[in-house]
Amino acid sequence: MIGLQELKQRIEVTATTIECPLKDCTETVERQRKSFKKEERFKCPKHNIYISPSTFEYADYRDNLLWKGGDDEALLDKISMAKRESRMGRDNSEDAVTWNVFRYLEKKNLIEGFISQLTSTTQEHAEVIYWSYSQKEGHAWTLLNKAREEFGEELKRSSEPDIIIKTDNGLFFIEAKLTSGNDTPSNEKQIEEKIRNPKKYTTGGGNWFQNVFLTSYKEIVRKQKYELLRFWLLGTWMAEQTGKEFYLINLVTEEKEKDIEAVFQRHIKQNAKLKFLRLTWESIYKHISNLNTTSEREMMIRFFKDKTIGYRNGILNKAFST
Ligand SMILES: [Zn+2]
Asked: Cα of 309 to ligand 1 centre, how many Å?
């Protein structure tokens, strides 16, 4: 994987060309604009990456992953069939970072300890569901699909938490943000459209909405918390069906959305069994750094330290404050 150590701090971007971001590489390719394209004219022939002014993408997406081959790849293949979209080969991919970090925690049996510590509870028998795919069931998780239906979502355009962790007592939705934020929809036109078409969000589950929100659907959509609204609605309903506690965990970088708990908690009814939490990637990094020798811990520490998220105005961006 290409990271901070391998990349130029600054790249030259002209109106028509862009240089390869790798240190010591003198290749220059045509500059691409608008939506990212994987075309030969944008590719560095030496490094096998497609370049744009803001990011680059590996010709083989697996080069962006720490866990590939064998069981990991078999699982990824199954996930990608259930998953809506994938840009895992892109340097600034949230999904690739999510996979690299959570698959590590899962493989090393660290999920339960981490979640227990985070929530000050005791969680056992954790099952990790990546982008809806249940490893146990071998397809999109049945209970999630039930919830989607209950609230009037079409399966193709439905709510898809990045990570769901299911334990004996708890249900945890983790929505991971790296470069994007929580504000959806992003413009006035879409806000109006969501308000005009609330699906069954306010009526499904026997008016479940009333049980778990303090403010109205319309107000929350206007405040651009549509995505969090859906996760809170579906997750609390699913927890109720199974008698579990529910945590909606918003995973962001340390410097971003510091007030998201206060902002979203205004809208929701929380209690001892239903909670919304902000979590940072950097605190996962600290948790991993503090572990007693686990194999591949050093590799994860290096990953957090070297991880980049493309370029802004020709200047390299480090992903985390590590
Ligand atoms: Zn190159």
From this structure: 17
- 147-197 residue pLDDT tens: 999 999 998 889 999 999 999 999 999 999 999 899 999 999 999 999 999
- Ligand 1 centroid to 308 CA: how many Å? 17
Distance CA 28, CA 42 (A): 9
Please give the pLDDT value at position 292. 86
pLDDT value for 295: 83
Distance 3 CA to ligand 1 centre (A): 14
Residue 274: phi, psi to the nearest 5?
-130, 115
CA of 168 to the centre of ligand 1 (A): 49
Distance (Å) from CA 318 to ligand 1 centroid: 20
CA of 45 to the centre of ligand 1 (A): 7
Nearest CA-CA partner of 117 in 298, 304, 284: 284
Q: Does this model's pTM top 0.90? A: yes
E-assigned strands of 169-221? 170-176
Cα-to-centroid distance, 46 and ligand 1 (Å):
5
Tokens describing residue 307: 């991880």
In angstroms, the CA 1 to CA 4 distance is 10
Cα angle value 170/127/150 (rounded, 5°): 65
Which chain residues have CB less than 5 Å from ligand 1, an ion?
20, 22, 25, 27, 44, 46-47
Q: Which three-class secondary structure state does DSSP give residue 20?
A: coil
pLDDT digits (tens, 9 = 90+) for 218-260: 999 999 999 999 999 999 999 999 999 999 999 999 999 999 9
d(CA 177, ligand 1 centre) in Å? 29
Residue 250: name the closest of 128, 160, 161, 141 by CA.
Answer: 161
Distance 32 CA to ligand 1 centre (A): 16
- Return d(Cα 48, Cα 43) in angstroms, integer: 6
pLDDT for residue 157: 82
Share of the chain above pLDDT 90, in %: 93
Per cent of the chain over pLDDT 70 is 100
